[in-house]
């Protein structure tokens, strides 16, 4: 535990919770910072800053780190969130904001649910890439609730207007892009394989 902080304060701070979880995952595998950097393609200096809560990781960086650990991003974040309740009240759902793009991610499902629901708000003009490794251990669907989303899955581009729902294919490098003038809001449903 971080000196001077209660468990409740750490759980309420997603940056601290993510930092702690990344360090736990790295150390559990016996990896040095350099080894995680090599496996993930994220610089050793950035990983060190994230683990010390001196930097908030971007969505892309978290995707690379989760892929290096062999965990879906959603599992890595759920492990950081650690909520044992069956009810996930809206006002207590963890919301993470990407400091680089303004992308927000709300974890809707209670921890340890078989199906994981996530709400994402992607600002206009924002593009968020993820490596194939971030999708390797899950089946995922994207349901566009507001706006429009361009989803690149390998070489295939899906134009998804409001109401469309896409079941992702085999893991491949992906890019979420909002080509619209306003924010795109979508739900992601994940099932671990």
Topology:
Blueprint: H1 7-12, H2 14-28, H3 33-40, H4 44-51, H5 59-69, H6 73-81, E1 95-97, E2 104-107, E3 115-122, E4 127-130, E5 138-146, E6 148-153, E7 156-161, E8 165-167, E9 174-177, E10 184-192
Antiparallel strand pairs: 1-2, 2-3, 3-10, 4-9, 5-8, 5-10, 6-7, 6-9
Give an account of the 3D structure.
The chain has a six-stranded antiparallel beta sheet, with no helix packed on it. With 193 residues, it is an alpha+beta fold. The chain has helices at 7-12, 14-28, 33-40, 44-51, 59-69, 73-81; strands at 95-97, 104-107, 115-122, 127-130, 138-146, 148-153, 156-161, 165-167, 174-177, 184-192.
Supply the key terms.
single chain; 193 residues; alpha+beta; 4-stranded antiparallel beta sheet; globular
- Work out the strand percent: 25-35%
The succession of helices and strands, N to C, reads HHHHHHEEEEEEEEEE
Return residue spans where pLDDT drops below 50 for at least 5 consecutive residues. 1-11
Measured between the Cα atoms of the first and last residue, the distance is: 32 Å
Largest sheet: 6 strands, antiparallel
Mean pLDDT: 86
**Count of DSSP H/I helices:** 6
Query: Could you tell me the number of beta strands?
Result: 10
- Helical fraction equals 25-40%
State the secondary-structure class. alpha+beta
